[in-house]
């Protein structure tokens, strides 16, 4: 039997981190690694996940008396199933993993996947107390590594960068613009979590209003859902875009819609490493994104898209119009994106990098 790895996460939901974990578990060599899943809360009913051994903890909060029982159950599970590595995602699982450390011999690895949009004094203090218990850390971009090394004083040599990967076998054939003179309606899209203001989807809607002045035929779509949706719909209505901006909601397979995009957009003010941009690129879609975080590791100016400052809706609109009016540039970018994803961001590369990291951590290099 291979080395036991317990992935500890808040819950299973439709999201970028959960999708990457799903792909990792499916891709690991089962002869070398036995995956286990631990969740702190009940998971969404419409989320599928590989059939692997599971631990479900009825976690309330760290200050709740039931946390002692969660620590006991977690530690007992680790000992019983001979878990070698616990890899945590998000703050509470990381804190819980640290608290369990005295009661088992498993190595702890924390995943850094954002630039700390969740930070406040309480959360930062909790993480500062937790990190010393960890043997190592995995960051999904150089920007994320640099941020946590600087803000949390985590030794840079303990942080391994492993970029997100995408399963190219699951990417549908993108729409190819014809040379027959037939024009299809330009579709500009964004995939974003509508629960987080830092995604700045309101900037996307304001950009849409500006793009329409030069390209009145353009249409726009927002893929995602959350508590901010109603306010965004109200903004769209106030800008007279009700029939122009479509809210597609949360989709299990957003690439089925992304393949129809003419341009993919990211407006976030903080981005660790955008799965949405990876999906745009894998479909050969030009990208217009904010110049921050991991976006700088994905988008190269005029090579596979454009980068603009956060909040610069005027410039974002200009870049979108430039792409809409230059079919040759779009085709060049299409080729560049397809090549870049295949050479640098495939699922196989991401899985192989994790396997090599686990081997080094356990001293079992092959």
Helicity range? 25-40%
If strands are numbered along the chain, what order do they take across the biggest sheet? 3-2-1-4-5-6-7
CATH architecture of the largest domain: 3-Layer(aba) Sandwich
Strand content: 15-25%
Structural class: alpha/beta
How far apart are the termini? 16 Å
Q: In CATH, what is the class of the largest domain?
A: Alpha Beta
The succession of helices and strands, N to C, reads EHEEHEHEHEHEEHEHEHEHEEHHH
Q: What is the number of helices?
A: 12
How many DSSP E strands?
13
Q: Given the C-alpha coordinates, what overall shape results?
A: globular
Might you state the CATH topology name of the largest domain? Answer: Rossmann fold
Largest sheet, if any?
7 strands, parallel
Average pLDDT across residues? 93
Question: What structural keywords apply?
Answer:
Rossmann fold, six-stranded parallel β-sheet, alpha/beta, 366 residues, globular, 38% helix, 17% strand
Describe the structure.
The protein has 366 residues and is α/β, with parallel strands linked by helices. The protein has two domains: 180 residues, 3-Layer(aba) Sandwich (Rossmann fold), CATH 3.40.50; 177 residues, Glycogen Phosphorylase B (Rossmann fold, 3-Layer(aba) Sandwich). The chain contains twelve helices and 13 strands. Strands 3-2-1-4-5-6-7 form a seven-stranded parallel β-sheet, sandwiched between helices. Strands 10-9-8-11-12-13 form a six-stranded parallel β-sheet, with helices on both faces. Strand 11, helix 9 and strand 12 form a beta-alpha-beta unit. Helix 2 crosses helix 3 and helix 6 packs across helix 10. The chain is globular. The two termini are 16 Å apart. The model has no long low-confidence stretch (mean pLDDT 93).
């Amino acid at each position: 039997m291979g080395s036991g790895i317990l992935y500890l996460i808040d819950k299973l939901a439709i999201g970028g981190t959960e999708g990457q974990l799903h792909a990792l578990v499916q891709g690991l060599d089962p002869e070398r690694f036995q995956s286990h899943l631990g969740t702190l809360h009940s998971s969404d009913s419409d989320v599928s996940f590989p059939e692997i051994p599971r631990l479900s903890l009825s976690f309330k909060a760290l200050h709740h008396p039931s946390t002692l029982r969660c620590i006991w159950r977690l530690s007992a599970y680790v000992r019983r199933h001979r878990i070698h590595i616990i890899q945590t995602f998000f703050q509470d699982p990381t804190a819980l993993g640290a608290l369990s450390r005295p009661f088992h011999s498993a190595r702890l690895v924390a995943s850094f996947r954002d630039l700390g949009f969740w930070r406040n004094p309480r959360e930062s203090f909790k993480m500062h107390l937790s990190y010393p218990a960890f043997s190592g850390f995995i960051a999904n971009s150089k920007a994320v590594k640099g941020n946590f090394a600087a803000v949390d004083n985590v030794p840079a040599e303990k942080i391994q960068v492993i970029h997100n990967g995408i399963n190219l076998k699951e990417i549908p054939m993108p729409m190819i613009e014809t040379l027959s003179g037939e024009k299809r309606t330009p579709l500009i899209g964004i995939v974003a979590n509508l629960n987080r203001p830092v995604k700045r989807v309101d900037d996307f809607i304001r950009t849409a209003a500006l793009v329409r002045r030069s390209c009145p035929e353009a249409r726009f779509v927002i893929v995602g859902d959350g508590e901010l949706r109603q306010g965004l719909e109200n903004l769209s209505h106030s800008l007279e875009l009700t029939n122009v901006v479509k809210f597609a909601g949360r989709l299990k397979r957003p690439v089925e819609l992304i393949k129809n995009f003419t341009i993919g957009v990211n407006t976030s003010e903080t981005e660790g490493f955008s799965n949405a941009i990876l999906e745009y690129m894998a479909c050969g879609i030009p990208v217009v994104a904010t110049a921050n975080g991991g976006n700088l590791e994905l988008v190269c100016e005029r090579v596979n898209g454009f980068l603009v400052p956060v909040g610069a809706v005027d410039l974002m609109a200009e870049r979108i119009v430039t792409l809409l009016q230059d079919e040759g540039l779009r085709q060049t970018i299409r080729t560049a994106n397809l090549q870049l994803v295949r050479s640098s961001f495939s699922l196989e590369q991401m899985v192989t990098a994790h396997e090599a990291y686990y081997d080094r951590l356990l001293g079992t290099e092959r």
